[in-house]
Design a protein that fits this description.
Two copies of one chain form a homodimer.
Chain A: H1 6-24, E1 29-30, H2 32-39, H3 43-51, E2 63-64, H4 65-75, E3 82-87, H5 91-98, H6 101-104, E4 107-114, E5 123-124, E6 127-131, H7 135-141, E7 146-149, H8 153-165, E8 170-173, E9 186-189, H9 192-204
Parallel strand pairs in A: 3-4, 3-7, 4-6, 7-8, 8-9
Antiparallel strand pairs in A: 1-2, 5-6
Helix pairs in contact in A: 1-2, 1-4, 2-3
């Protein structure tokens, strides 16, 4: 794969968000300075980020919004759909299934699992909670691109191991634990409490 | 302030989570190996992380759970309460106000603001949505430690500027934009879509 720093990928996402808003407002060109503001960076960095992918603005005119938007979508892999399985049907798992923003961006939640008999069979947003024991069996027949780990911290590593064993190579982790995975597996962690504690640490130690 | 890498602070949060669970299960000592598993690291790294703060396990016995837990709480600044103001009363803002996990960890949501007349005055979880125009006036009298920016990407930077202008030095940003703030202000970003796109990038480019 192309070796691009995570911070660059994040800026590309931010530029894309901005281009989408900009297009909605009917604008057809955008300057590197405007993109820089949104990405928290400089015009020079924007030009460097984009020239790396072969996109060059026109001096005095800037970038064409639809063309750059389409190019960023391709680079970020957003021109296809991804199948997401969610493991853990607690509060966050349920919120994920009810969150409309996934589908809009090309991420289809195709199944949700839990091992709690009280939850198995419940229906959320048209998805029935499946028995987690079925995971391996199901993933033999139904491809999953991304596994969302929404279990307790205790269970998270073994769930991640099982997903990886099924061939899942991208994990979105909501549990407060640092998952250990093989090198070819990508993990992103989303955890509000960890971010809050990073802020309280800063507040308490200055 | 003590200069500690963000990755270390994150591991300390993970160790703390683990110690809390461990204590609930009635355990009184824990090994560096067990802490390492949860932190996705090695026993040597755990010993290094903790010795930095003057905490030393006993060979063959490990660390005392209640004492280490208390020490980590102090280091992370969790022995006091923090006042959080939320700016933006959309879907995520409303979810934040309704989320019980904040209070449990010492973060009190004290006010929520919006500039939409249709939202101002609505009550969520006992908090009335206030007019964002009042922000500066209110924060003169009511201390805020942390500002949560839950606005559109468009509005996020100016809201952050206003919070910083009011003396807020820690910002939790949910908007898909890289905020530019003075050096002494800490910002943590929580954004599910950015994390998903980082995964789709990886999946599309290998």
């Amino acid at each position: 794969m192309r070796k691009i720093a995570e911070s660059t990928v994040r800026r590309l996402s931010l530029y894309l968000r901005f281009l989408e808003e900009f297009e909605e407002q009917g604008a057809s060109t955008i300057s590197s300075a405007a993109l820089a503001t949104r990405g928290g960076t400089t015009s020079a960095q924007v030009r460097k980020d984009l020239s790396f992918f072969g996109s060059f603005g026109k001096r005095g005119l800037g970038y064409e919004v639809p063309a750059l938007k389409q190019q960023l979508r391709e680079i970020l892999g957003l021109d296809r759909r991804y199948r997401v399985v969610v493991v853990g049907a607690g509060k966050i798992g349920s919120a994920l299934v009810q969150y409309g923003g996934f589908k809009d961006r090309g991420f289809d939640l195709v199944a949700i699992y839990d091992n709690d008999p009280a939850k198995i069979g419940k229906k959320w947003n048209g998805l029935s909670v499946r028995d987690a024991a079925q995971l391996e069996q199901d993933l033999k027949h139904e491809r999953a691109d991304i596994g969302a780990v929404v279990t307790s911290a205790d269970a998270a590593q073994s769930v991640a191991d099982r997903l990886v064993g099924c061939g899942v190579t991208a994990i979105l982790n909501f549990a407060p634990v640092q998952l250990t995975v093989p090198e070819q597996v990508a993990v992103k962690t989303v955890n509000l409490v960890l971010e809050l504690e990073a802020l309280s640490y800063v507040l308490a130690n200055r």
